[in-house]
Every structure is written in structure tokens, then in C-alpha cells.
Amino acid sequence: ETGVTQSPTHLIKTRGQQVTLRCSSQSGHNTVSWYQQALGQGPQFIFQYYREEENGRGNFPPRFSGLQFPNYSSELNVNALELDDSALYLCASTPGQGRNEQFFGPGTRLTVL
Amino acid sequence: RKEVEQDPGPFNVPEGATVAFNCTYSNSASQSFFWYRQDCRKEPKLLMSVYSSGNEDGRFTAQLNRASQYISLLIRDSKLSDSATYLCVVNAPIKLTFGGGTRVLVKP
What we know:
By secondary structure, chain A is an all-beta fold. Helices cover 0% and strands 50% of the residues of chain A.
């Protein structure tokens, strides 16, 4: 059974650009959540996708958007990047079937210059 | 007030000693509780779920107090490899709300 994978591992962008981050969920997990973790802080919930629909959203502006595909993989898109978007972006998948613990991928470290 | 609050530490612990720390949460509708461990520049990894009756996993014991809205983690016989940041996590519902983490440093 493969775990959660994310790509790329590191990314450098400049202010105003757009970025797409990718996540493949753990085998059999149909729910994917995205988190932003700034240095020295706990992860902050961005949104969750279940069966290709957004299933909940945290306190992030609309320029943060996402997709989930039929194979349960997911993308996080961020438009009009700001310096404060520099962070570790974590994807987590959930087994479902009454279990709600989440299993994280290694993250994408985004630096906005 | 933050939804989930933790003492950031660091807790400096001699190898072999016991360390315990708490976190408090504000949402009384919270349904599930977890402790995650995060090593420097790595992803959080599930350490254990926390059940109402309290639960133990080897050297780790977790407790939940719904009335006072806090959960605790106790680590016995600390190992050098226990050095990490421990994240208190509350699920209420759908999203996981993380505390800022408690840093534990186990020293020889």
C-alpha cells in the first residue's frame, strides 16, 4: 500500500505568479484535505475534497482553489501569490469507513520571493 | 482565543524521565482527538487517537477530559528519539484543527 505522495517537493515562485501543487492520496482513501503550515506554527486547514466536491473550507481567500479527480488525487491552486503564502503545504488523506484520522504526505515547500 | 492551544515548550527532558503536557480546545462540539508527532521539516505523523476512557500505546498515554476541554499526553521512559514537536489535533467535524505544537527535547 503506497502512502500519500506530493509533488513537487520544493518550489520557488515570485509574487503575483500562480502555482499548482499535486497530491496522490493513500490507496483506498477517498477524502483529501489540504493544509498550510507556516514556520513555527501548526498546520492550518485550507479545504477538503470528497468524491470530487469541496466538502469544507477554512479561512482562506478564493485565490486558493482545488480539485479532486476520479482517482482521488488532488490539486491545490494558488493565484496571485503573496509573500505570506510561503509555507509548507501538506496534503492528507482519510480512510473513510467511519475512520477520520488523516495521513499526511511529505509536503511541498513553497517559497514566494 | 485560539481553537486549540498548547504550551510551545521546549520541554527539556532527561533520557529515561517522564514528561506530560496538555492542550486545551474551545469547541465543545469537537468529536475526535489525536496526537501527531512532527519532526523538523517533516510531515506530521499520527501518534495516537485519544479516546474518552483514556488509552495507552507502549510508553505513551493519552487522556481526554471533555468537561474541562483538554487532552493530555504522557511519555514514560523518554528516549532520545522522542525529541520532536507534538501536535494536539481536534476534529470538529471534517477539518482537523491543530495546536501550535509542544516541542520536546530529550537529552542524554
